[in-house]
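Tokens in:
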């Protein structure tokens, strides 16, 4: 095996964010940039020699090139086997499922999730550990530390692998198996859900559209929805993965998934609509002319979980990220199970799932998942909804309205200010924090501040502490305003403002969320000076 040791020097800021290292393709293309980071991952691992690594990505531009490099480096560093998705493709949940199924040592995911792709777009790389989940902060910090002192990396000189052909090959002394990207994942879904009753639902004429947004879930959704569950051809739209996602933002929200939104809010809308993101871990759920907020979706899945074969015996607990609405907490209370509030990012759910403390997890950012793997899972959420729809034989809207009637409604919205000047955004957060000593007890209109803090989290399993996870202001009536800077953007800063208020009165449940939250929205600006610092007079994205 022709192992080369190449001298290199560190790149500043190779720091994994909320979900791995994400940068512009042009940055990843610099000589040694990817190699440095891959070697830094390897240098932070122990006892991996001879073991198996899973490699795949969301199919975006640079995916295949990066995989060839990673394979040569994995072989040079002594991995025994690599499982690679055909064409270099694996959805993020599929990587998690495959790591778990084959007891792999870990996995490398090439994705920038919902960020745009193509030569001028974004690229990303993320390491997942043997439980199938994103590396916890202890490891991402070790990776960053390695990247800041790296002076060499190892790679073998050999021909590229043919990623098109299923089957076994070798790279140096490492076995490489090119696997079907969909089969293992689809088999897992069949174990979890009642495919027969979903099939019967489609046979009865139920109509659905799934928007794969030209990203990774196209082949997954086509096989599962159309071929296995018998949904009519054409149910899956934008189903062919493209290296630039057709020029769009593969982000399943009301703005980016406009093809689907137009259909679902138009005449003759299908009964159910759903979309997933670049790497397949997010989901958006729509009914006929009806949007289900991700926070409500988590609560509804929890409240209906016993209708699903995999969860028929009930849930151990529920976890949600701190900015996610408290809707799921009300369900947990009613079910008399524990709930946990974690910082933003899926990596915080891993310990809770591994310890059996929770069964379902969710984030307001269109992420939902369960103990079936250790990532959020877009298609899983869609199948969960389909299974509920098949069991309850009601519309999406009726299910949501009945849920509110029973548990109360958490009016909720996230306002994003994208591409803000970084210094200005940091100043806003600093100044906001400096007001926190005087804020408790202060009255704004009818609302009195109960608490405010910069959220920090003590992991209940390993007791590790994560600080600076977002500014929270909680009011005595249960309303909340939360301010956070995004950890996944690649340009400037993105300020996220999360607004929530709880309404028990069913007579008010029909209100539009932006109307119901109007006074909190004003207050959020009044307290933090959003307009003043960002220069924006309105958010760039409202969800
Ligand atoms: C965003 C979401 C967060 C999610 C992450 C990865 O991170 O807000 O919930 O886990 O993407 O998909 P952010 O940009 O807010 O740091
Ligand atoms: Zn994603």
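Residues out:
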């Amino acid at each position: 095996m022709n192992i080369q040791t190449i001298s290199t020097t560190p790149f500043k800021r190779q720091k994994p964010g909320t979900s791995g290292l994400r940068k512009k393709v042009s940055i990843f293309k610099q000589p040694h940039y990817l190699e440095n980071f891959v070697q830094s991952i390897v240098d932070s691992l122990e006892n991996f020699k001879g073991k198996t690594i899973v490699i795949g990505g969301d199919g975006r531009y640079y995916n295949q090139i990066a995989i060839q490099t990673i394979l040569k480096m994995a072989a040079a560093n002594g991995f025994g086997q690599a499982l690679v998705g055909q064409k270099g493709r694996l959805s993020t949940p599929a990587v998690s499922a495959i790591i778990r199924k084959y007891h792999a040592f870990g996995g490398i995911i090439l994705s920038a999730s919902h960020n745009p792709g193509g030569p001028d777009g974004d690229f990303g790389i993320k390491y997942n550990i043997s439980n199938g989940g994103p590396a916890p902060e202890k490891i991402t910090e070790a990776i960053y530390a390695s990247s800041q002192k790296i002076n060499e990396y190892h790679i073998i000189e050999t021909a590229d692998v043919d990623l098109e052909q299923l089957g076994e090959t070798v790279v140096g002394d490492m076995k490489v198996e090119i696997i079907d990207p969909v089969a293992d994942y689809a088999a897992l879904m069949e174990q979890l859900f009642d495919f027969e009753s979903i099939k019967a639902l489609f046979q009865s004429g139920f109509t659905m559209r799934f928007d794969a947004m030209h990203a990774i879930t196209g082949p997954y959704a086509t096989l599962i929805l159309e071929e296995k569950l018998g949904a009519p051809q054409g149910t899956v739209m934008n189903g062919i993965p493209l290296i630039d996602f057709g020029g769009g933002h593969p982000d399943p929200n009301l703005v980016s998934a406009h093809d689907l939104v137009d259909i679902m809010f138009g005449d003759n809308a299908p009964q159910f609509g759903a979309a997933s993101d670049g790497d397949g871990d997010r989901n958006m759920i729509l009914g006929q002319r009806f949007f289900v907020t991700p926070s409500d979706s988590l609560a509804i899945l929890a409240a209906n979980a016993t209708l699903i074969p995999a969860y028929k015996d009930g849930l151990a607990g529920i976890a949600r990220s701190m900015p996610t609405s408290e809707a799921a907490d009300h369900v947990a209370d009613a079910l008399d199970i524990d709930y946990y509030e974690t910082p933003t990012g899926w990596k915080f759910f891993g310990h809770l799932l591994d310890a059996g403390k929770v069964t379902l997890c969710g984030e307001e950012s269109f992420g939902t998942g369960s103990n079936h793997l250790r990532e959020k899972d877009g298609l899983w959420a869609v199948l969960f909804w389909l299974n509920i729809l098949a069991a309850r034989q009601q519309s999406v809207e009726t299910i949501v309205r009945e849920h509110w009637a029973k548990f109360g409604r958490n009016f909720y919205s996230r306002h994003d200010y994208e591409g803000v000047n970084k210094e200005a955004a940091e100043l806003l957060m600093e100044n906001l924090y400096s007001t926190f000593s005087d804020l408790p007890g202060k009255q704004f209109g009818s609302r009195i501040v109960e608490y405010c803090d910069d959220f920090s989290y003590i992991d209940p399993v390993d007791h590790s502490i994560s600080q600076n996870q977002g500014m929270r202001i909680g009011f005595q009536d249960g309303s909340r305003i939360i301010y956070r800077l995004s950890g996944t953007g690649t340009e400037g800063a993105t300020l996220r403002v999360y607004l929530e208020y709880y309404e028990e009165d069913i007579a008010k449940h029909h209100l539009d969320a932006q109307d119901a939250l109007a006074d909190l929205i004003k207050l959020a600006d009044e307290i933090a000076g959003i307009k003043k610092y960002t220069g924006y007079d309105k958010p760039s994205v409202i969800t």
